[in-house]
Amino acid sequence: MAVVAVDSNFPRSPRGAVKLGRTLVAFVTFLCFVASRSHGAYTALAVAEVVITALFFLLYLLKLDKKMGWLFWPLADIFNSVIAALFLLIVCLFAIIIKTNNGTLAGGVFGLVLLVLCIVDAVLLFQKISLDGPRGRNTPAK
């Protein structure tokens, strides 16, 4: 039976707090879009963001990024944050501009808050990684 190590400091770190915030804001965005019966693309983007961000949070919390060294996880996380920010910008601006009802408007506003959290997450990650340095096992992912 394999014992999984838990990084109990990660949720209290700036990156952990941003990941938790992203997950919660994405879930609120999802609820707003579902409650207002918005277009399926709005809902799909919000639920995808909840799932992907929660998976990255678990990856770092359980230190699986160190066990699965075949991928440079911080760089994958940066790509996820940047691509999510681009999709959120487009979809949430459409939701705000079209504004079929107040729920769609609220979902669009929460989506823009989520966009800011994605950018903050990418910047925090980018500050911690070095693309030209060695990729040892001791490279911090937080």
From TrEMBL:
Keywords: Membrane, Transmembrane, Transmembrane helix. PROSITE patterns: MARVEL. It comes from the Eukaryota. One of its GO terms (cellular component) is membrane. The keyword Calcium does not apply. Residues 10-130 form the MARVEL domain. It is found in: Membrane. It is a multi-pass membrane protein. The chain crosses the membrane at residues 20-36, 42-62, 74-98, 104-126. This is Chemokine-like factor. It comes from Grus japonensis.
